[in-house]
Structure formats: C-alpha cells, structure tokens
Design brief:
Strand content: 15-25%
Largest sheet: 7 strands, mixed
CATH superfamily of the largest domain: FAD/NAD(P)-binding domain
Number of helices: 14
CATH topology of the largest domain: FAD/NAD(P)-binding domain
CATH architecture of the largest domain: 3-Layer(bba) Sandwich
Helix content: 25-40%
Shape: globular
Structural class: alpha+beta
Length: 530
C-alpha cells in the first residue's frame, strides 16, 4: 500500500510515474493483463481513454461470445464466475434473472462493469487512470522507454515510464506511436493464400463465393456500430422523443427492399444466443439482432445481413485520425444508430405492427447514466493489426484441410468462427450479401492454438500487444472476441512480469516458464484434436 501512495503522490505532483508495467487500454484484454501482472508481484498502471473501464464488455456487449466454454479459462472464467455470483446473490439461484445470465456468460452492462471493477480493486498494486489518452511515445534504441498521456478534461500532461508496456487498445494506438509496423485493411488472397481474403462476396448460407469476389487487397475495414442495451420494462424506459441530429430517413429506406425480397426472414439454422427472435422475423425489426439478458433487458446488435445495413464505410479515417476526427466519426455512428431506432419506432412508412414491435424496446434508465443511457464505446471490430514475429492466418484457424497447427509457444486457444461485418455499402448488382461480410458461424469452426509471437513486434522492444495483435484480416475476424482477448491479456501480463523478473525483453521471455504459469493459473493453452 505504501508504494501505491508514493506512486500516486509522484503522479499528482507532476513527476514521471515509474511503474513496472504500463498498460494502455482498459479493455477486457487490458484488465486481464493488469490483474495477471499484479498477482505476480508487479506494480501496474492501467490507462483508459473513457471514464469507464471494460471496453465493449461494459458498453453494450451483453454476452460473452464463445462457442466452446472449455477452451477459455483463467481470468476470463473468474469474470464469468463473478457475474453469476452477482445474480445468484441478488435474486437467488432459481430466479429467471439468474437463468438469463447463462452461468455468468450474459450480463447487464453495469453488472459487468461492477464485476470488473471489483476484480481490479482486489489488486492493490494496480493504479487505474480513467479519462486519459496517449499523446506521445518515446523510443530509445528501438525500445519503448516512456509515454506522455493527456487528461481529456483538463488538458494536463503526465509522463510515464515502465520496464514493459502493453498495448491493449482496440486500435493499436500505442505500438503505432512507438513506430512498430502494422497492417491496416485487408490483405489480398494471394499474400497468404487465404481463400476468404480481400474483396469478397460470400454466401453465408450456401458457403459459396459469389460473383464480384476478386480477392484483391484494399484499405477497407469491417463496419463499426454501437452495441445496444435496450429494455422491455416500461418503468425503466427512456424513450426517444426526437430524432438525432442530422437524421435522414433515406439512410434506412434500403430495409424496405430487404423486407420485400425476404432478406429479413428467419435463419435456416436456428441457434440460441445469435439474436434470433421469431417475433421479429419478416419485419423491419429484423434489422436488429436481439438477445434476452437479465432484468427484462436485451443485448442488441445491428444485423449485418440485410443489404440496407447503413454502417459500412462510415469508419473510414477513424483509425489514423486525430482525436477530433475519431470523435466526429463516433458521433456519426451514434446518430446513425439512434436514427435507425427512431426510424423503426416512428416512421409512418414502417408498418404499424412493426412499429409496435420496435417500441417494445427502449433505452434503459439504469444503464450508461452519465451518457444519456447510450453506450460510450464505439464497437471497433478491427483496427490496426501488428506485424509481429508470427502472423496468424486463416490456415491457423481452419487447418487448410488438415488439423489446425500446434505451436510450441502456444499461450491461448481461439475457438470462435470467422465473423466479419461488411466492408462496403450496397453496390450495384448486390442481391444477396454485402461485400466483405464473412458470416461463417456454422462453417469451419474448430479451436486453434495462438502463439505468443503474435503479440511481439518484429523490432520494437519493451512492448506486448495482446489485442490488436499480428494476424491477417481473416484471422482477426475470429480472434477478435473479448474472451479470447482476455486470455491473450492474461498471457501478456504474465509475460511482462517474467520479462522483468528475468531481465530480458518480452521477445526473450522463457516460453516454457510462461506456459507453466499460465496453466497453473487456469489458462487453456493447448487444443488436443480427437
């Protein structure tokens, strides 16, 4: 406790705050990194841009996307256990709310935040700084030496130095500032011989490539959206009373064509947890994917399959833009999202029965209370991707017709199917799917090992990147799930501590020792094929 007090005094007195490990990004991956390192004995500073920690897990993503629960353990499982304990303690084991938490894998956003905050608060060697952004990074002899952060409200600047830094942002901001090489956009099919790379039209039901597929590389990224938490409880509802600024109903008129063409029907394969609500099939409300979570609330995704989906291309310029640019693009996405809800609930051309269904879902008064009940974190599904010591590709995930690869330095297991949102708006001739959508949820799903090397920049030392890691676009479309990122974060925090303990750079961490520690702490690091 004494060391923490001295650190805070130094911080607020304007001196450089020296820590063992500095983590930029309070995402679930960053939180897992901090907890893992702190438990090993390191002093850790965790920095978050927003005034809240937890990234998407506390900002609308009400369910943990995982297909095989046995493949991800460790700190992620502790989070899940904390969620379940909350509902059991609050409502009782047999209550409907507890059942709707699905053993802790589903949660209301404020509950997820409460659990993660409690996990952090138990580790007295973690200092959490909210509302700060990166201003600059200083590299000496190809090693990240220190950074400067800026308080978003006051403009105050603070220098931070550390023995090891961890970039846990969705965007890859820290390693980019340090000069590490990265990829942005989509590789060509030829670069890594990946069938689903580049410009692609993929029939997600027939599992076939469609005309227009070229496999060419481009700079486009999967669409960003906001993930919503909406309530069915009238007593807890904050209704929209007016459309958002810059509302334009023409943004949503394509959904009428989707309805007429049958693209808003139910799926051929019905699986729970995928946002399938039979009452919404063949209605305009199918523009949303709605999953029940506790307390009459819902996890609401924006359905990427209709051709009227308005969000592709709206993220252009976000990743490499300055803070003002990012705020402008985030506001545009917020307004598009609010506009879609307003359109479904109020537009006179929307059939009355569809409007009635849409009005059953409202913004909850008890969520995001400091942000007008709207999530604060834009869903950045993909940003930069590090160029690391190893690049994870589609073949690592699918096995290229064989069993997936085993890696000597495996530190986690990925298990979610390749799932990428569209990259382009509707183009002339599009009749089935938007360009870039890779909905492979029922196709080529198999666990795969993740090597430590994808978190290590090829040249910059003193830095580990567990979130915006070294993968191709196609592989990132599988690895980009918060449970997987928490597993990678736990590995990153453990590795950072080992690097300090052994007085080596992160790339020289003894992998066998790292794997032993991870296994001892509940991490799953191997996938054994039958």
């Amino acid at each position: 406790m004494t060391r923490i007090i001295f650190s805070l005094l130094a911080f607020f007195c304007g001196q450089s705050l020296a820590q063992d490990i500095v983590i930029y990004g309070g995402t679930p991956g960053g939180i897992a990194s901090a907890i893992a390192a702190a438990r090993m004995g390191s002093e850790v500073t965790l920095i978050e841009y927003h005034d809240h920690i937890g990234g998407m897990t506390t900002s609308g993503l009400g369910k943990s996307d995982i297909e095989d629960r046995e493949k991800i353990g460790g700190i992620f499982k502790e989070f899940i256990a904390g969620v379940q304990k909350h509902y059991v303690t609050t409502y009782g084991a047999d209550d409907e709310n507890t059942k709707l938490c699905h053993d802790g894998y589903y949660a209301e956003p404020h509950v997820a935040e409460t659990v993660l905050e409690a996990m952090l608060s138990k580790e007295t060697s973690i200092t959490v700084l909210k509302g700060w952004r990166l201003k600059a990074a200083q590299v000496e002899d190809r090693k990240l030496a220190d950074i400067t952060i800026l308080n978003r409200k006051t403009g105050e600047e603070k220098p931070l130095n550390a023995k090891v830094f961890i970039d846990a942002t969705y965007e890859g901001d820290l390693y980019a500032a340090a000069g590490a090489r990265y990829r942005l956009g989509r590789e060509s099919r030829d670069e890594f011989d990946e069938p689903h790379a580049g410009v692609v039209y993929f029939d997600y039901q027939a599992h076939e490539f469609l005309p227009g597929t070229t496999g060419q590389a481009d700079a486009d990224l999967p669409a960003y959206t906001y993930r919503l938490c909406l309530t069915k409880d009238p007593a807890n509802s904050q209704r929209l009373t007016e459309p958002p600024p810059d509302y334009d109903r023409t943004n949503y008129l394509g959904y009428f064509d989707d309805l007429k063409a049958g693209r808003l029907a139910g799926p051929k394969v019905f699986k729970p947890g995928r946002g399938y609500n039979p009452a919404h099939f063949d209605t305009l409300v199918r523009a949303l994917s709605v999953t029940d979570i506790p307390n009459q609330k819902t996890d609401v995704n924006i359905n990427p399959r209709p051709l009227g989906f308005p969000f592709p291309e709206e993220n252009r310029g976000y990743i490499e833009g300055d803070d003002a640019t990012r705020q402008r693009i985030a506001t545009r996405h917020r307004n598009l999202t609010l506009g879609l809800i307003w359109f479904l609930q109020n537009d006179p051309e929307v059939p009355k029965a569809h409007r009635k269904l849409a009005n059953e879902l409202q913004f909850p008064k008890d969520e995001f209370t400091d942000n007008n009940h709207f999530p604060w974190q834009l869903y950045v599904r993909e940003g930069r991707r590090l160029v690391g010591e190893y690049t994870l590709t589609e073949h690592d995930i699918t096995g290229k017709g064989q069993a997936p690869k085993h890696h000597d330095d495996s530190i986690a297991v990925g298990e979610f199917p390749i799932d990428s949102f569209p990259a382009r708006k509707r183009q002339p001739g599009d009749t089935l799917v938007l360009e870039g959508y890779l909905g492979m949820l029922d196709y080529i799903t198999r666990p795969y090992e993740i090597p430590y090397r994808i978190m290590i920049p090829e040249k910059i030392d003193g830095l580990i990147a567990p979130v915006a890691a070294s993968t191709t676009h196609v592989a990132f479309s599988s690895i980009r799930m918060e449970p997987t990122w928490m597993a990678l974060g736990q590995a990153a925090g453990t590795a950072a501590h080992l690097a300090i303990q052994n007085k080596v750079e992160p790339r020289k961490v003894p992998v066998a020792a790292l794997q032993t520690l991870l296994t001892q702490h509940g991490q799953v690091i191997r996938h054994h094929t039958p």
